[in-house]
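Annotators were shown the component list below and the corresponding predicted structure, then asked to write short factual statements about the assembly.
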Amino acid sequence: MELVVFVLAAAMVLGGALGVITRSNPVHAALSLVLTLFGIAVMFVSHNAHFLAAVQVIVYAGAIVVLFLFVIMLLGVDRAEDINLEPISAQRPLAAVVGLGLMGIVIAAIVAADDVLVSRGSGLSATTVDKPDENVRQLARSIFGDNVFAFELTSVLLLVAVVGTVLMARRVKSGGTK
Amino acid sequence: MLDLIWLVPALPLAGFVLIVLFGRKLGEPFAGVLATAMTAASFVVVALTYFELLSLPAEERHHVVELFSWIPVGSLSVDLALLVDPLSITMALFITGIGSLIHLYAIGYMHGDDKFPKFFMYLNLFVFSMLMLVLGENLLVTFLGWEGVGACSYFLISFWHTRDSAATAGKKAFVTNRVGDWGMMVAMFLAFSAVGTLSYEGINHAAEKGGLAAVTATGIAMMLFVGACGKSAQLPLYLWLPDAMEGPTPVSALIHAATMVTSGVFLLTRMAPVIHAAYPWAGDVIATVGAVTALFAATIAVAQTDIKKVLAYSTVSQLGFMFLAIGSGAYVAAIFHMVTHAFFKALLFLGSGSVIHGMHHEQDMRRMGALRKVMPITGFTFIIGWLAIAGVPPFAGFWSKDEILLFAFANNRALYLVGVVTALLTAYYMTRQVIMVFYGEAKWHDHSDEHGAHGDHTPHESPWTMLTPLVVLAGLSVVGGVMQLPFSKNTHWLEHWLEPVVHHAEADIHESWAYNNKWLLLGLAVVIASAGIAASVAVYAKGRFKAVEPQILADAWRYDSAVSAVVGGVGHKAFDAVASFDANIVDGAVVGVGREVRAASGLLTRMQTGLVRSYALIIGIGVVVMLAWFLVRGVL
Amino acid sequence: MLSAGLLAPEIQWALLVPLLALLAGACLLLLATLVPSLPRWVAPALTVSSSAVAGIAACVRWNELYFHKGTYLVANAIVEDRFSVFATIVISVAVICAALLMTVHHAEENGDQLEQFALLLTSAIGAMVMVASNNLIVLFLGLEILSLSLYLLAASDRRREQSQEAGLKYFVLGGFASAFLLYGIALVYGATGAISISGISDRLTGEFTTGNNDALLLIGIGLLIVGFGFKVSAAPFQVWTPDVYEGAPTPITSYMASAGKVAAFAALLRLFMSGLMTRVDDWRPVVWVLAALTILVGSTMAVVQTNVKRMLAYSSISHAGFVLVGVEAASHRGSDGLASSMAYLAVYTMLVMGSFSVLVVVAGHEDSATSLESFKGLAHRRPVLALAFSALLFAQAGVPFTSGFVAKFGVIKSAVESESYAIAVTAMVGAVIGAFLYLRIMVSMWMEDASDSSRIDIPRAAGLVLGVSVAFTLIVGFFPDMLIDAARLVRFVPL
Amino acid sequence: MSNVVLASASESMPFPVLSWLIILPLLGSVAVALISNRRPEYVKLTASLVSVATGALSLWMLGQFSTHDGGFQFVSQHDWISRWGISWHLGVDGISLFLVVLTGILFPLVILGIDPHHDEKKYLSWILLLEAGVMGSFLSLDLFLFFIFFEIVLVPMYFLIGGWGYDKRVYAATKFFLYTMFGSAFMLVGIIATAALARRDIGYLTFDLVTIAEKASFATNTGRWLFVSFAIAFAVKVPVFPLHTWLPDAHTQAPTGGSVILAGVLLKMGTYGFLRFGLYLFPEATVWAKPVFLTLAVIGILYGAIAATMQKDLKRLVAYSSVAHLGFIVLGTFAITSQSLSGGVMQMVNHGISTGALFLLVGMIYERRHTRAIAELKGLQAVAPIFAAAFMVVMLSSIGVPGLNGFVGEFLILIGSFETARWWTVVAATGVILAALYLLWAYQRVFHGEPDEANKSFAEITPREGALVLVFIGLIAFTGLYPKPMLERIEPSVDKLIAHVEDHSDYVAPAGPAGGHTHESDHEEGE
Amino acid sequence: MNALVAAVQPTDTWYLVLAAVLFGIGTFGVMVRRNPLVMFMCIELMLNAVNLTFVTLATAVSDVNGQVVVFFVMVVAAAEVVVGLGIVVAIMRRRSGLTADDLTALKG
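Structure shown to annotators:
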């Protein structure tokens, strides 16, 4: 059962990812990104991280990708980028080498050191039928307990984002363009 | 009195300083007068010292006057000290004596030269240096004088420095001398490292007591000889002397005939014990070089036409005789010949100077002749000088030359033979010169048009200031021989006088065949001389035979030109090669590094394309490489 | 019911004053946007004063920390120790200088003022969090706050397209790099099971077995190095630096070069020194290579530059290399590399502020004249300015009697004392190559004739910054004891 | 520890003359820089006063210097960077004494005698700063202190060459700065390493020269490495043969004053460094490196002379002659005998005087003819005899004619080196011939012959110039004829140094007189 | 067949490997795509890969922090995208339809 889920989800993830990097039209790219995100969400679920799965869908698929599409439409850059043409020769082969090399190395490390992954934490409480909100509780305790400082920091982060968009979006007063 | 010896060099020095300060104000002739007076004064002092020395017993005729400590460092302590002993006084006597005569002569000769004071300034400086050379108590003080006279001769040779030939000659003299100086310096180093002192007394004492290993002694002797070759114009370093004739004639007389060129002989005599302590072949080397030089120069002199060049080569040849003497262990004879040579060669030079003066700076003998009529005194004195050098008894040259030949015979017959041939040639070319200049028909009238420039072109006798020295020197050349007459032990007067200095090293020939048959040799010498004269007369006066003056002799066996060719050609190229090596290779490397860095910079900045993606790629590559390292570290 | 079992950690607000001050400043600035026709001086005044408060508070803490080592705050999320406080002081100084320079930079009316100052303050918050963080999550968040603010600031001069180009490049590559960093955090977390630095070090020093090998952990470390290397612009991750530094508004460049580097290096040092010390033999060689590469690349690439701003960008790269030398030294037992690298950062902050203030003055409001041309004959146009600049440049070249020399000497000293001679020699050679760059600037200032003789006027704010930094440079150059002593005290809180 | 003793001694000293020798010019330079442009007349005045005062101070110090004491005198020591064990430790002994005095004398002459032609204020300010730096590097007894002075000197010199030099000045200045900095880069590492390693023997970190030299002992190889790191810096500064090419450019392009100072004192920082930090700190390594440096020195002597012969530019010629002369000094330094070292120290001063004077005269020629090309000069002696005479005297001293200063040093070096480095010395002595060759040839081409049109108008030496040159000639003649006062101050320190070397290495200095019989096998110069 | 399906359980390693692949793809994308928006998307891919890793590791080491991190990363990602898009908008306003390759005013 799990195997099936994994295979399907993995297919979604990779398919979406490949779509992102291969689709010439940014809109299509954004949509295939959604595919990946859903795939990830599924995997979250299969790791009993239901809350994160939900957030993944809401925030990522719901907010971020929408934002992408919104900007694409706003700027009208939805015309296709010529994928087949690569101005810098040797860029793609090298990029491929780097990408594959990276994968290879990391995978090698993971495979080589799989026995490192042993349970050391205080335990992760899974969601069960009788206690549907266990995972959320645990997350909440952690976020508002140990990681409350980080949580507060996110407010600053968002503040920056807001200020930034205001700053960037404002029309140039002194149109001193060069 | 002995302690006042410092006056001897001090007086000429004072003269020099005074002329430096007030030369322009003094002007002519007072600058000359002052200089002459100073030299004369120091001659007087020397004379007084000499008599006092005479009054002392022989073994006490050695007195050191320390002026101040000059270079004291650790084990090396060199004082600026003067040594009074028979040898130094002998030298000082004829230096100051002849020196003052030549000063006097120069007053007349340099008349009208716009640098009159400067000339006497240099002259006094020279006398000072020369006196330091001979009076020095240690090698370093001698070296001080040694270099001093070198510098002065440089100044005086290129006195008329606007003439390029003069400038070049001066430079040549200095540089060639420097080669010799190198030898002398090395000799000093050796002496110091072996004996630990530079004072003659110390070194000679060590040599006499056997405190000096033969090999060391040989080293010192040979190096000193190198130095002597430089100063005293022996092969292969004689080159500069003929060119030195570019200088004013008094200079030629004083420096390049009478005094400076003999300082090599003096130095070797001074260090006689060391030469004695050296391997025997050291002496042979010296004798051989001397003999060869003597013959070599004599052959050249045969074909010269410049009145001064003849004398110059004859000087070289006579110096060769002196080294022959030294090499044969005849130190007394060497000094003897040095003195007599100083008399007659100075006389001859001054005479030639007087001729040149009278001929309005004409030096080519082919344009002279029959001058004895217009310049009787000059002619008369010159003839005396001729007889003296030709070795005609009883003139001075005869005795001294014969003394040398005697020792040479005892020492090495081959060299004796060379000496004899040289003597023959000497008589021959001197006779030739006398005939060309003073006899025959006058060849100067038909050149009047060319000499019109000089205004009155007919030759004239020189002023008294120039003639007095001639006369005096002529007198000395006649009687000079009395210093050392071979007749009996008591007439070996110079020998007794110099005994405290050289007795240890002087070769003893009393048992030799030569000594027992010296009258025979004397007679032979006379025959040789007359033969030479006769031949010359036959050729040049009577015209019986055609003169043999091959070009190669006139060109001094092309030795000079060959050397200049090497120096100017290969040497110059080599030096240029070094210079360009420095500019291109050594500095090129430095510049190259800079260029490489710049190139690398350009290369790297080309990676800075400004394209985000390629930046990402560079980062990515970095990541992969680094992670590879970590993976290796981790897995292995 | 949620509150059940939720134990909120107690918070010593007093020790968070620096952060709170900056935050308050930022918020006030944002409120100020509501006020119509605000006097021009308000924004800078607010910024300077709030960062001044932060700095002073930090100084006060410094004195108290003289007696104890430091404390963990807010559930071990961050720590307050001499190290963090020292860095905090440096950062707040940098903020003040940058704010002053910004006032000069947009002299004429410009609506973006308030936001820019606000972003400056938020970035400072991020920086201070980074230097204090004991938790990789917090560290990451601080880094992001700092970075996002810097992206925006870099792009904030909308009169110049280069500014936005710089912003975008910085953003793309920055995001790229922080993804690596995050991945690194993930792997380290996986390998150790701990997310806090102290926890990681406990696990690594503890009895726990890493299985048959360290691969996962080391790959994680590698990715962390990538992330930090990018921020401190260590070769080969320095590629973005020249473009961004040149494009960004000059005051921002100076701020990125100083505070940005300080924060990144501080975080790096804390994580690697107190977290990953047990794997030092694995990562030290990498740092070694990075240091050498960075110095050589930075100084070499500067040789052919013709734009002073860009030159300074490259020089900042090679300076980062020198700090890395200090880091390498610090990784040896009983070395004072930590102190020397922190001292270097402090010194460099002042140097960079002074140098860029000159640049601001010469380049004018539009950042137009930053080419070497415009510095020609500066000695004739403004001798004092030229002299001050020369002093700063010589300091950067490491000429004696300047703070720069003291800093370099300190770093090299640490390296030599821990017997890494090779890196020391490499660094010095790099310094020689680098000197060429400063000489070139000086040549055009002193030995060439001015292209235009228009008079340069020095605004008060810039003059102030310049004066202070030159004074600092010389004073430290002649009497380095104070700085050295301070740096010597810099220590991490014991685990 | 000895420092304490020295320190207490320094407390009791009434007047810290050495510190003032450094501080005075420093203050002067600041003062000059601060004079407002509206009062230009004060600039020269101030500079002259300061430099003269410094010179007077150095002479007073010379007077107070106690003759037969080989140790450091006028020592003053104060903590500076206590954290790193760095102290403001100054002291002077026979080795540095005359270099300090030379510095004190040379600078006023340069300031009074040579016009910069433009930007006088900056020029003088730099010059005074330079003086402070030079003084510092000759006086400091602390490695760190020495290094910073050694390094800081570059800055004013850089500006002097670059700001007041001739056509290729920027190239020359940059080359000079980078080349020298490259050398000292290694020394910095070496210095720190020395202190760090010495710490093990001493117990605490200190950069104090005396303490390290007396107390620390380095493992053979370590010592050699450290020595090399120092040697590179000094070899560049001297400059020793392959590292010399910055010198001709710097000399040629520098303004007259710059050249005089460069030749006069700056180069000596290298040779002085070899004595003070090579021999004193690393005796064993120095003895080990002996053959290499002797060879390089001899090469430098001949090579420099030959290169000089072929130069077409008068200043370049003198520059290369410097290479040759400094070769002698290096030879003397590494021969390590009482005579050679004393000679070396003395030759540092002599070369400073005579070559400085040469550059001065060449500068005067340039002032008049605006060319340094030998080919364009001719027959100057005919139009300016006094000038020619002055040039001649200086030249003879440079050639090394006895009775002038050049000879004494050269002779001592050679006779001393002959004891321990026989064959090198024999070869080196030939340099004497070459010296005569290139200088006389140049003299002939420039001063002899008939002056052509351009040179007819060559002006005779002016009283001011004459006075300036006269000082040099006076020094030349005095030291040449009566070097005793100098030698008896130098020698004790030199002997002390040699004793130190013998204690800290297996080197044995030649005993002197007795030496003769021991090595007879090598007396083969005769063949 | 079902037996096989039932037998083979995807272990944590599978997920980690998948994440690694995803990360690699993202990296590759950043390097080859020219449209800045798509570049951002690729960065998002990388972040998601990391998120997956975190969640997997959280279960592997049974520690909640892994999931907490993911929560924060999402916030960061959101903020990042906002800022990035803001900058892009600012540029695109000026020069619409430009690609990352067009931004080469700064180089060398």
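Statements collected:
1. The two ends of chain D are 56 Å apart (CA to CA).
2. Strands of chain D lie at 73-81, 86-92.
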